[in-house]
Automatic annotation (TrEMBL):
Gene3D superfamilies tied to this protein: Acyl-CoA dehydrogenase/oxidase, N-terminal domain, Butyryl-CoA Dehydrogenase, subunit A, domain 2, Butyryl-CoA Dehydrogenase, subunit A, domain 3
Positions of transmembrane segments: none
Limits of the Acyl-CoA dehydrogenase/oxidase C-terminal domain: 243-381
Keyword Oxidoreductase: yes
Pfam families recorded: Acyl-CoA_dh_1, Acyl-CoA_dh_M, Acyl-CoA_dh_N
Cofactor(s) annotated in UniProt: FAD
Acyl-CoA dehydrogenase/oxidase N-terminal domain: residues covered: 17-128
Domain Acyl-CoA oxidase/dehydrogenase middle: from-to ranges: 133-224
Source organism of this protein record: Sphingobacterium suaedae
Domain of life: Bacteria
Family: Belongs to the acyl-CoA dehydrogenase family.
InterPro entries: Acyl-CoA_Oxase/DH_mid-dom, Acyl-CoA_Oxase/DH_mid-dom_sf, AcylCo_DH-like_C, AcylCo_DH/oxidase_C, AcylCoA_DH/ox_N, AcylCoA_DH/ox_N_sf, AcylCoA_DH/oxidase_NM_dom_sf, Glutaryl-CoA_DH_mitochondrial
KW Transit peptide (keyword) present: yes
UniProt-recorded name of the protein: Acyl-CoA dehydrogenase family protein
Length: 389
């Protein structure tokens, strides 16, 4: 038996349908052929992967849960999770691209947009012909988006959008963005901003040590004219952006397992071959403890993600349950990446292996979509009934 292949220790595949397994196999095969060969170079050069969104569209990795009539996959939540896991096994930047497009751009248009907006944007986003971005975070408001300063002011029959969003995935290359702003009654409104609108500019954030194969940047609005048709009329409070986060955070809870497994398998293969003191390093108890603990934590994370997916499919997953899984699984993946890097010794720091890249990526994943601390406070509030924010 090739022990490095065993990462489904509790035979959780039995919990997946044949369709889930088929989707996983097809995404795995495509992503490893069409994207993985280019990831390391893109990350080293701090450039996004050429044509990534279109590739993701072609292989069916965008809008998995959006109905087929709008170009989506019409799949269930577990299928979405399985897809995210395959993407993040390659690189968190790849999963990030799909998370933003599917959960943060397509989802709000589907949930809160008009029929016209759905028909106009969803098929183009699903195919990857359009790249979307999600603007919630601002320079002065990250964990506390409710205090946002971006405004939507009435101007004749339309509105004027002013403000700035920061740390926005795909901002520099986006064709359109779902942007959250406060109107004059302090209601939180969703606005569809398109590239080319007067007063809308984008700026790239440089020198990142993390998610280097993904581009991040600012969205800046200076008196951008917005019509009624550019607004998402189905929501006017924080539940709008926060509901999108539920979907993306859920995807991350699956995705990071992919990154963790990639690190674990790499380290195990290495430890079985690397000889020190005349024996493979995998034969030493200290290293075996690391592998045992990593596999235990991976297995617990798999169970959490799978169960959350089932609850989500039944419409029973609470935001607080999603927070618990996002926080736990990202922390698990970070620890697995760190341990795996140690096991490779000096070899752990070079790009010949994917571990350091995963490790650096996961630092961002632990911050975005709600920080490690914020998710703990969400659980704390749920347990005690007292907000500690
Ligand atoms: P709070 O007063 O608790 O709630 C305000 C209203 O929203 C409702 N709500 C939710 N609805 C749906 N889903 C959720 N998860 C919800 N959480 C709260 C709530 O019921 C209430 O509704 P109503 O009708 O009673 O008014 O909200 P708060 O302002 O005190 O904030 C709570 C807090 C801190 C948990 C929230 O602000 C938060 O989650 N902060 C973290 C910010 C965050 O996660 N930002 C992510 C930005 S996007 C991103 O990072 C993309 S990375 C993309 C990638 O590359 O993958
Ligand atoms: P802050 O909120 O300033 O937090 C700083 C520290 O203080 C953290 O450790 C936090 O846990 C802690 N803290 C904050 N409040 C409390 C409290 N009440 N109690 C205890 N500790 C607290 N945002 C988008 O809208 N769209 C995107 O596409 C997007 N993509 C991103 C891509 C990358 C690569 C990164 C790094 C971020 C991205 N973000 C995006 C932003 C991300 O969501 C924020 O960085 C995140 O929400 C945290 O906000 P902040 O960085 O301002 O940190």
């Amino acid at each position: 038996t090739d022990t490095t292949r065993i990462t489904d220790y509790y035979l959780l595949d039995d919990l997946l349908s044949d369709e889930h397994k088929m989707i996983r196999a097809s995404i795995r095969q495509a992503i490893r052929k069409d994207v993985r060969p280019f990831v390391e170079d893109a990350a080293q050069r701090h450039q996004q992967i050429d044509g990534l969104m279109q590739t993701l569209g072609e292989i069916g990795a965008l809008g998995a849960c959006i109905p087929a009539e709008y170009g989506g996959g019409g799949l269930d939540q577990v299928a979405y999770g399985v897809i995210m896991q395959e993407l993040e096994a390659v690189d968190s930047a790849v999963r990030s691209a799909a998370s933003v497009q599917s959960s943060l751009v397509m989802y709000p248009i589907f949930m809160y947009g008009s029929e016209e907006q759905k028909r106009k944007f969803l098929p183009e986003l699903a195919s990857g012909n359009l790249v979307g971005a999600f603007g919630l975070t601002e320079p002065n408001h990250g964990s506390d988006p409710r205090s946002m300063e971006t405004t939507l002011r009435k101007d004749g029959v339309g509105y004027r959008l002013n403000g700035a969003k920061m740390w926005i995935t795909n901002a520099p290359i986006c064709d359109m963005a779902v942007v959250w702003a406060k109107d004059e009654e302090s209601r939180v409104r969703g606005v569809l901003v398109q590239n080319g609108m007067d007063g809308f500019t984008r700026k790239e954030t440089l020198h990142k040590w993390s998610l280097r194969a993904s581009c991040t940047g600012e969205l800046i609005f200076n008196e951008v004219y917005i019509t009624e048709g550019d607004l998402l009329l189905g929501v006017d409070n924080m539940a709008g952006p926060l509901s999108c986060l539920n979907s993306a955070r859920y995807g991350i809870s699956w995705g990071v397992i992919g990154a963790a497994v990639d690190c674990y398998q790499t380290a195990l293969r290495y430890a079985l071959e690397r000889m020190q003191f005349g024996k493979p390093i995998a034969s030493y108890q200290l290293q075996q403890r690391k592998f045992s603990e990593m596999l235990t934590e991976i297995t617990k994370a798999q169970l959490l993600a799978w169960r959350l997916g089932v609850l989500k499919d039944e419409g029973r997953a609470s935001p607080q349950q999603i927070s618990m899984a996002k926080r736990n699984n990202v922390q698990m993946a970070l620890e697995v990446a760190r341990e795996s890097r140690q096991i490779l010794g000096a070899m752990g720091i070079v790009g010949d292996f994917p571990i350091m890249r995963h490790l650096m990526n996961l630092e961002s994943v632990s911050t975005y979509e709600g920080t490690h601390d914020i998710h703990l406070l969400i659980t704390g509030q749920d347990v005690t009934g007292i907000s500690a924010f």
